[in-house]
Amino acid sequence: MFTGVYYFKIDTKGRISVPAQFRANAEGKFYVTYSPDKSLVVYDDKGFAEFEDRLKKLNDFDPQVRDLKRIFYGGVAPQDCDSHGRIKLPPSIIDFAGIEKEVVVNGMSNHFEIWDKARFEQKHQQAIANYFQNSSAMTGKLD
After folding, report:
1. How many whole angstroms separate alpha carbon 29 and alpha carbon 10?
2. What is the mean pLDDT of the chain?
3. Structural domains present in the chain
């Protein structure tokens, strides 16, 4: 399980640190791709396989499905942690996520996100402002 919020800096080679407990959970192998939130989503082998199973069930004759798969799979950058616990992010996905220097790694249970720090703080403030309203609305959907 990936939980917690961590702050790092991206180096000049596009590498970021991955929290030690995340590396241990995933044995140091990750799949990085685009997120609809203009951040990056990162899966371990198990999480990637689960999401891929869901994608395989979608109708490939639907143009929205094809677009989703095209972006998701085209953006996937499999990464192994180096000896310092870092993964390298390709320039195209760094640009997509608007990552400048400071990044936030945010745990999301079966995956984690990588955000530009300023973009994350803005999104986080919006989420906190709506937290109680959203949690009340979602509670009924948990049954």
Report:
1. 18
2. 92
3. 5-117 (3.40.1550.20)
